[in-house]
């Protein structure tokens, strides 16, 4: 039986203009009258220990979430620990190649059975009293040799549901959860053109931050702060004609790249557009990721073409050097950003040939979080380093210089946001239509958490 506070469906719709209407010269981010999205969010959700406890009990213990990639456990006997708040889940590949997951606890007296990641397991041995479990989670051994005399009977590790999509391993501790395919709604079909499972992880970095995990999600699912926090990006991204789609639990927007924002004052020269695009997305043209090098003089723009056309040609040439997969793709899918939020904590920046995943996790208090940043590249089929096992690195804020200008700008403002959320005069966050994806996330949080009346979203 599904819990009464799990998702039951809701309104979905697009905010105009639609994906097929990119050229429309109308303001986007205007909700159609029939689309109601929460716009007043209680500030206490970001600071309250009670709310955080509800999230642990009713969200993280009941929702599908990305634990790792399939490449993290590519061989039988590989394992990977996924931590989300106080919960810890071990994902492993058993001796038949099946992906399994278990709550990270020994049924004897509760020790965590595995930490970190590794490979070569034939069985799992608890470090406390050496009870042993096969890779299907069943207790094994005999009473004489394994001190099992008097044990309560056959027992197993506590299983966690698993599913895969796009090369990612999803887990859900709820034994009564819906199938992953149902949870993901239309996203696998909509993202099929990308072929995400074929990409290789080139970076996996974790950054502790002094703010609530939802503060980070909020910042990464709206483009409303571009003009204030990342003004340099107005030269290359149209944050006005960025249509938002609300599915049921998940949301997306599509942001045109290689064109200036209508909010940008003054003329954007071809040289400026080239420099900003190369600095932020040059890796899509085969250049170094987030390079701070001089980007050089822009390539010539042929008669009758624009700098966006030139960038599209450059990206096409790079993609063609990898393989024929995107040879027939239209310009829109070649250069623009397909930006997805998979509820609750995964945000994807999807481009042809490259995508980034940012995953937020709660920290030790409501004022702390972990941000996991992954980069994935499509590599040629015969590339010698296809599908490497991701290596996790812990970052400090001072290490962010290699990520270009955008991320440090975000992190500075997130710290301020968390500080402000504690001020007693702030009752609600007040969202604009451009921030509808945040409102939708909180609606879904209400479904999962079924909070007390005084903590619910106002009508
Ligand atoms: S707690 Fe695991 S064997 Fe005792
Ligand atoms: Fe930002």
Written description of the protein model:
The protein is of the alpha+beta class and 459 residues long. It has 2 domains: 13-63 and 195-455, Naphthalene 1,2-dioxygenase Alpha Subunit, Chain A, domain 1, CATH 3.90.380; 64-173, Rieske Iron-sulfur Protein. Helix content is 22%, strand content 22%. The protein contains 11 helices and 21 strands. It has helices spanning 49-60, 143-146, 180-183, 187-190, 213-220, 226-229, 270-281, 307-322, 331-335, 406-421, 436-449, and strands at residues 13-14, 40-42, 65-69, 79-84, 87-93, 99-103, 117-118, 124-125, 132-133, 139-140, 159-165, 168-172, 200-209, 244-246, 251-255, 337-342, 346-351, 354-362, 369-377, 393-394, 428-430. The strands form 4 sheets. The chain has a 9-stranded mixed β-sheet. A 7-stranded antiparallel β-sheet has the order 3-12-11-6-5-4-7, with no helix packed on it. The protein has a 3-stranded antiparallel β-sheet with strand order 8-9-10, with no helix packed on it. Strand 11 and strand 12 form a beta hairpin. The chain is globular, with a radius of gyration of 23 Å. The two termini are 28 Å apart. Residues 1-10 and 16-33 have low confidence and may be disordered. FE2/S2 (inorganic) cluster is lined by residues 106, 108-111, 126, 128-129, 131.
